[in-house]
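[09:14] KT: can someone run the structure on this one? pasting the chain below
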Amino acid sequence: MPPKPSITHSQVKELVEIHGMSLTDAAKVLNTTRQNAYYHLHRTGPGYVNPKKEARKSMPWKEVRPEHRNAPPAKRAAWHAEYIALGGKGMSESKLRYLRQWYQRLTIENEVLVYDPSIPPHRGAKTGGWDYVPRREEDGDLLFRVNEFTEVTDETRVDWRLPEKELWPKE
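[09:31] RB: done, structure tokens below
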């Protein structure tokens, strides 16, 4: 059995954070398994915080029911959080394309996203919970409607605005 390649926390962290690689791609570059790369990233060096997971913590909804977490509107919102946090770095072309289309929809239709667990299933969210509603003046430039299911901070008001068109993901 050949010896395992010797890798370090900093090698994995550099590939993931600076070069925007997935853990799987970093493992390939380092000629090791994904599990070994994961181990070195999370267990051998100073605490690593996954920026995607950290970005999702900024989502304004207090608690989204498990059955609503994978609905298309929830995914678009999560991708927005990721895009704002990482500037699109490491995001797939398809995610960026869908995100750009989402921004276009919100702009053209003059809508905001609303979460309410009582919203029944419909064409846009088979699980229910999410819907798009006409934008009102009190929505300002936020991507979502503030209601009892949201938690809004000063940071939320900055990160969850509809970006200016020139800041949207490029085609």
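[09:33] KT: thanks! The chain has seven helices and two strands.
[09:34] RB: yep, looked fine to me
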